[in-house]
Amino acid sequence: MVKTYYTDIVKLRKKVQSKQMRLFDLLKVKYSKDNKRKEQILNDTIISKYYFDTLDKNIFTENFSNYFDNQYFYYREKSDLETELIWNCLILKKFSSELSKYNAYRLKYEKYLFKDDFNNAKIQLEQIETEFGVSLWLVENKMLLQEFYSENSKMNIENITKEYSKEGTNFQKYLMDKISERITDDFSFDKYSKRTSMEIENSKLPFEIKLFCVYWLDYHNFPIDDEALSSVLVISFNTSLIDRYNLTIRILQQLIAEKKHEKLLNNCLRLLSDIKDLRIDKINAIYMKDNELLQLSKTDQLFNSVLDEYTIGNYQTALEKLPEVFEQNAGAFKILDIYNKSLLLSDLIPNKTKEIFKANFLKEISNAYFEVLTKSELYFESIKKILVFSRKLGANDWAIQMYYSIYTQFNNVNLKEKETYIFLNSPINTVNDAIFIINDNARKNYILQFGSDSNTLRLWKFYNTNEIEFDLKDIPYYRILTYEAKREQKIKRTGFQSLTKRLDDEIKKISSIDKSRELSSLNYFKEKMRHELYSMLLADENYTDSVDLVVENYLENSINLRMFNTESLLNEIEKGTKNKLITSKIETLIFMKLEDSSKLSYFFELFLDCKNINKPTELIIEDFSVDKVIFFFEEVCNIGVLSDQVLIFDRHEEVEIERLNILRKLIGINPSDERIYTEEISRISQDKLLRELIQKVNQSKLFVDVNRIWEEKKDSIIESIHKFLEADTQKMRYYNLNKKEVLLEDMGKSDNEGIFYFIFETPKEKELRNVLNEILDFFLSNNEYGLDTYLSTRIRHGTLQGQLRSPFQKNNLITTRKSDKSDEYIANDIMLKRINGNAKSINKIFSDFSYKIDSLIEDVKKNWMQIKINGKNPQGMFDFDDLDLSFEELYSNVSSESSPKIIFELIIQHLWDETEKSLERIRERLKKELCDQFIELLTKLQEDLANEQTGNNTFVNRKISECKTDVQLSIDEVSSWFERVDPSDDMKVTSFELLELCKRIRENISPEFSNVNFVSNGDEQILLSGRELPYYVDILLILIDNSIKHSSLELEELNVEMYIENTENGNIKITVSNNFNNNILNEINESIEVIKNKLSSSKKQSSELVKVEGGSGYLKIYKVIKYDLEAKPIIDVSQKDNIFFSQIEIGR
Question: What are the domain boundaries of the chain?
Answer without folding.
Answer: 93-286, 298-428, 717-727+762-976, 734-761, 991-1146
